[in-house]
Specification:
Elements lengths: L16 H26 L5 H11 L6 H8 L3 H13 L3 E5 L7 E5 L1 H23 L3 H18 L13
Antiparallel strand pairs: 1-2
């Protein structure tokens, strides 16, 4: 009987079994979320392509268009097109920066905030019952893991801006 073959190191991009399991679970969860999210968006005149920049922008008081483009991973021209649609729909406003009037900033309008609140409310109504069927510790552990994963990818959304009283 010969000696066992030495194991070859895995290429950096090839996941281990446990990493592959998590990546597959993330893809499955993303699909499940989209199945529930898309009808909520369609009912409010939004596509998934418009929802993402609106959500990202909602986490700030205002944002420069270039920062939005970098934050959502699109080119400046693509971001301009998305913002044009959001502005036309009344979800986002463009205005001169208060600190430098030569620069434009973007901000979510009251209509945009109400729309996001309605989307989250409807989405939560369909997701929370499924979450409540899971052990609380599993939910907490999954939340910790996903946040840590986002941090390591460098893809965390901006910190939430404090609420401004209306």
């Amino acid at each position: 009987m010969g000696s066992p073959e030495p194991s070859m190191p895995r290429p950096q991009s090839e996941p281990s079994a446990i990493e592959g399991e998590l990546l597959e679970a993330v893809r499955d969860a993303q699909h499940a979320l989209l199945v529930h999210l898309l009808p909520c968006l369609a009912d409010r005149g939004l596509s998934k392509h418009l929802f993402f920049p609106l959500w990202y922008l909602s986490r700030t008081r205002e944002l420069h268009p270039g920062d939005l483009a970098r934050g959502i991973g699109v080119s400046a021209p693509a971001c301009t097109q998305l913002v044009d649609h959001l502005v036309a729909g009344g979800f986002v406003a463009r205005r001169a920066s208060a600190t430098d009037r030569r620069h434009i900033v973007l901000a979510v309008t009251p209509k945009g905030r109400r729309t996001l609140e309605a989307v989250w409310r409807e989405l939560n109504a369909s997701l929370v019952p499924a979450l409540r069927e899971l052990p609380a510790e599993d939910v907490r552990g999954t939340a910790r893991t996903l946040r840590a994963f986002a941090r390591r990818l460098g893809a965390e959304p901006p910190a939430r801006a404090p609420e401004v009283p209306a």
